[in-house]
Amino acid sequence: MAGDRAVLDRSGLPSSNRGVSEFRNDTGTLTVGIDWFSASVDMFAVLNELAFRDGDSYEDVRQWIDYSAENARVVALQMFCFFFAGLGLELDETVGGGRFYTWRVKIIDKAKKFVGMIELGGEECRRADGAYTARLELTGDGCKTMSAARCGHAQRWLELRAKLESCAGRITRVDVCADDLIGEYPLRLAQKWYEEGEFNNRGQRPKAELIDDYDSGDGKTFYVGGKKSEKQLRVYEKGREQGDKNSPWVRYEAQFRNSNRKELPLDILRDPATYLLGAYPVLSFLNCVATRIEITKAAVEATWKSARRHLRRQYGATLRFIVQHCPDADALKAVIESCTSPKLPGWATGDTAAHWPEIAAVQLTQEGVTA
């Protein structure tokens, strides 16, 4: 085992898993990342951010999208650029029919391999509150590309989280995987935990199933929970599945789904390790997973940029009108306060104010005056 650890330390993660996560232990032998993602978003909130066909009614735009595949791709491209620009991915030229939506456009990588999709159009896309939605999806390969781009997991996924929050995004499915690269927590250990009741929930034991390779070297898979339930854990011999019959690499992968009873929190994109451990406390070995960058700072930066962009695009002209017609700073403050809500947004913390440049500059000036 020591030899395995040394090889991993020198060469990094296996090529099929490199860049999946910024969440890993000191030796790089235990990592946590996101391996599947899908969400619905308020389509017109996104288009408003981009000022797309500004002035047209939502119904006119919706009918225009439904009219042709070409129109649908134009809107899908707008959404692709908003959420996934800079990843090195592309939007396919071909538009097909969707499963729940009228249109589906594939997201592909440079090798033209399918890594995700955008779905939109049709009456089925309307939420109970009347909002028209579009659907985003990234496969495991799409998530790897997302995590590997630029600054790694935290920067890219936190930017996505902030954008989802700005357009009423709801996660519909996310898979969180923990990779034990040296086999310290083998599949048979997960079976033992199940037999001991460690996966029981409120006294109820979930269903379990073993897909046995009968020691052929192809790899075993152990399932805990139903495939269509709110959560299901899959434990499988990932390295052997990839073709190495002697690999010790084991993956613990939880599939989380939203339901009418429970929505998935956007923060699962910020810290997947915490949510995986929270769902399955028996996976206590995840406590040793550490972040390699300052997550809070990255989260704050991604959030305030999205909030300021949304404020400027949606209400910039109104704010300009208010500024022009207020005679002094006190009057401006009074008018602005008359338009505010007593509640603060979920992302608002002391750190947010410190990282918002204009607010920080004003605070610094006031501190100087006070001093």
Explained architecture:
Strands 1, 2, 3, 4, 5, 6, 7, 8, 9, 10, 11 and 12 form a twelve-stranded antiparallel beta sheet that branches. The protein has two domains: 2-293, no CATH class; 296-370, no CATH class. The protein starts with a helix and ends with a helix. The chain has helices at residues 2-11, 43-49, 58-67, 69-84, 140-148, 153-166, 187-195, 238-241, 272-279, 295-324, 329-338, 350-355, 357-370, and strands at 23-24, 30-42, 90-97, 103-108, 114-120, 133-138, 170-180, 208-211, 221-224, 231-236, 250-257, 290-291. It has 371 residues and is of the alpha+beta class. α3 (58-67) crosses α4 (69-84). It contains 13 helices and twelve strands.
Element layout with pairings:
Layout: H1 2-11, E1 23-24, E2 30-42, H2 43-49, H3 58-67, H4 69-84, E3 90-97, E4 103-108, E5 114-120, E6 133-138, H5 140-148, H6 153-166, E7 170-180, H7 187-195, E8 208-211, E9 221-224, E10 231-236, H8 238-241, E11 250-257, H9 272-279, E12 290-291, H10 295-324, H11 329-338, H12 350-355, H13 357-370
Antiparallel strand pairs: 1-2, 1-12, 2-6, 2-7, 3-4, 4-5, 5-6, 7-11, 8-9, 9-10, 10-11
Helix pairs in contact: 3-4, 6-10
